[in-house]
Amino acid sequence: MDSAHSLREQQVSLICSDNHLKAKLYTEFMNESIESVQVICHQDLNAIIENMNAKSTEHLYVILYENQDYLVQKLLLKFPKVHIFQYSDCVNSLINKMHAAKSCQQYIDQAYQQEVLKIVQQHSIHEEPEQELFSLTPKAREVFTETESTVITLMIEGLSIKEIAEKIYLSPYTVTGYVEAIKRKLKVSSKLQLINRMFKNGYVNRG
Q: How many helices, marked H, and strands, marked E, lie in the chain?
């Protein structure tokens, strides 16, 4: 296992088993001025994350190889500021994604959205069915993903971010990310505007 390479007085640390990617990441992140970042891309990722505790102020960037999809849930639940990316031979494209995600508290590559949905569904099937006060119309289902639709429905029912996170077994940071994505689709900036726009656009059925 490679040891971590300290960059810029240990504000940025890098653990990577791909030497080509390691060199590129070193060049890209050595001049970062952000508070604290750890970048990991390693074949032994499971063993690494088992033995680490990310600080609450630290942004963790994890690049997953093809056979590491199963670690998505563990990463989301253990690290509040994790950014998860899919490994790509196109290193420049991967690095561009990483830079674009810097402003997010938590980021999940589009390739793993289905994994997040599985987490929600696995826990939902063990719960008693509840009568829905609101449901989304077929029109809404064409606009929003399944997880976004679940988040919207619970928001309309009055649940807070924390309550939604507990109900669908995701972290509050992950739920907040979905809420922000929904706001962008609706072109609104607040929860109240989001709910009003959902009804105005005919996206919600009552009862």
A: 10, 8
Sign of the CA dihedral running 108, 112, 115, 120: positive
Beta bridge partners of 39: 14, 61
Cα separation, 122 vs 1, in Å, equals 33
For domain 128-206, the CATH class is mainly alpha
Question: What's the chain's length in residues?
Answer: 207
DSSP 8-state class, residue 102: G
- 102-159 pLDDT, tens digit per residue, is 766 677 777 776 666 666 556 554 555 455 566 888 999 899 998 899 999 998 888 8
Sign, CA dihedral 79-92-179-205, equals: negative
Using a cut of 0.90, tell me whether the model's pTM lies above it. no
Where in the chain are the domains? 5-110, 128-206
